[in-house]
Amino acid sequence: MSGVIVGDSYGGGIVAYILVNGATGYDPNVQHGLIAATADQSAGINWSSSEFNSLSEFKAKSVATGAADTAIGTGQANTTAIVTIQGAGSYAAQLCNDLTEGGYSDWFLPSKDELNKLYINKDAIGGFTDDVYGSSSQYNATYSPWKQYFFDGSQFYLNLYGSSRVRAVRAF
Q1: Per-residue model confidence as pLDDT tens for the chain (172 residues)
Q2: Contact 139, 157 (CB under 8 A)
Q3: Residue 82: which of 113, 56, 48 has the closest Cα?
Q4: Alpha-carbon distances of 40 from 61, 66, 127, rounded to whole Å
Q5: Cβ distance 48 to 91 under 8 Å?
Q6: What number of CA atoms fall less than 13 Å from residue 118's CA on the CB side?
């Protein structure tokens, strides 16, 4: 089967990952994977819709969104759960959920493992900075989200009120 490869322009963005045999959703007859937006959606935006002035206020307003899945293929469901719980506002999941790029409007904030694929293929995708990017995967109601340093690949979770860069993805 011939098709696209990582780094190709396709489906409104850049092919970031192609499912391999054994991956959930893999089909040997139909190519599936992730497409990254062509540029970051934000150089620094909060994961949460709430603004916090202190640690005690942060703890009082923290909520579990149910967006705990980390696997490839779960970013869309995580994003939907976050937007449903948090509602309108200016935050990472809402920014991705509202994105229309390349004629597509089904963008989402990647899960922890999807974000890692962006890191692994960052040179082929292009446009990333050596900074911290956020995912849609919530560690728990107090610490969230999983984030990833794009200068060394390490993943960690941090307070909801920390901002990070955002790159939206969509599935194909």
Answers
A1: 469 999 999 999 999 999 999 888 899 999 999 999 999 999 999 887 765 555 555 555 556 777 889 999 999 999 999 999 888 889 999 999 999 999 999 999 999 999 999 999 999 999 999 999 999 998 876 667 899 999 999 999 876 567 899 999 999 9
A2: yes
A3: 48
A4: 28, 25, 7
A5: yes
A6: 40
Number of H helices, E strands in the chain: 5, 9
State the sign of the Cα–Cα–Cα–Cα dihedral 128, 119, 19, 76. Answer: negative
The structure's pTM equals 0.91
Do the beta carbons of residue 102 and residue 13 sit within 8 Å?
yes
Preceding omega of 110 cis (within 30 degrees of 0): no
Residues 24 and 61 sit within 8 Å (Cβ to Cβ): no
Collapsing DSSP to helix, strand or coil, 110 comes out as: coil
* Proportion of the chain in helix, strand, coil states, percent, rounded to 5: 20, 25, 50
What are the phi and psi torsion angles at 156 (to 5°)? -155, 165
Paired with 163 in beta bridges are 46
Domain ranges of the chain: 9-171
